[in-house]
Structures are given as structure tokens and as C-alpha cells.
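Q: How do we represent a protein-ligand complex in a form that can be generated cell by cell?
A: Start from the inputs.
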Amino acid sequence: MTLIDAARDVWARAYAPYSNFKVGAAIRGKNGEVFKGCNVENVAYPEGTCAEAGAIAAMVAGGETEIAEVAVIADSPIPVSPCGGCRQKLAEFGKPDVKVTLATTDGVVLETTIGALLPGAFTEDYMTRT
Ligand code: THU
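Then emit the C-alpha cells for the protein with tetrahydrodeoxyuridine bound:
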């Protein structure tokens, strides 16, 4: 199963009754294991969580903290673009050169990287004075 197939699999289970916009994300950890997440909305709208955040939470709960590859899928006209908060969350666990595949359920694919999604990312380096 490809990483996009894993993202598509969990996409179907997204809970998005308010936006009607389901998103699925799959992360391959450095150890090779695949972790999946979907968006989970709430009637109190700001309490909803993104697919990428769910996949990251599953990864960390599974004992992995290094992202090797990411795939995100949605039923969008063009490949779904991770929100700003999720870009920062991905940058926490993945190096800038980590491949991110963004896809539509129709099969349109855009390949990018964590670094390209978040240029000038805030990192721990900014907090270190030598
Ligand atoms: N959403 C994600 O889960 N990931 C993204 O990359 C973009 C947006 C979700 C949040 C919300 O449940 C719905 O899509 C509409 O914004």
C-alpha cells in the first residue's frame, strides 16, 4: 500500500459534518511504520482538529518522533494545502527535505517538501544564544 493509499483509506473515516470537507493524512515514520489521521470536527468549530495533527499524534503515541514521508488527500479541486499550523507541526518532526505528497481523490498529485511548505520556519535555533 502506498502512503497515498493509506491517506485515502483514513480519509473515508474523517468526521467533517460541518465543513463537509474530509481530509486524510498518512505519515511514514523513520522506523517504516505508517500512522494515519483524519480531520475530526466539533460543533464548537474551533475545537476541530486537522488530519495532519491526528497523524502526528498517532505517530508520537506509537513511539515514533521522526517523519520520513507525508501524504495528504482530500476531495478538492486541486491538491489540498496544509494549513499554517499543520506546516509548523510537520516541521517539528520532519527535516526540511522530507517529501510531502498532496493529492486529490481524483488522482491529481503535487509533490513538495516540509521545507518548501514552511520557508523560514521558527526552530529551536532561534532560542539559542551562544
Ligand atoms: N483540514 C485538514 O484537516 N487539513 C488540511 O490540510 C486543511 C484543512 C480540515 C480542517 C477542517 O476540518 C476542514 O479541513 C475544513 O477546513
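Helices lie at 3-11, 51-61, 84-93, 114-117. The longest strand covers residues 67-74.
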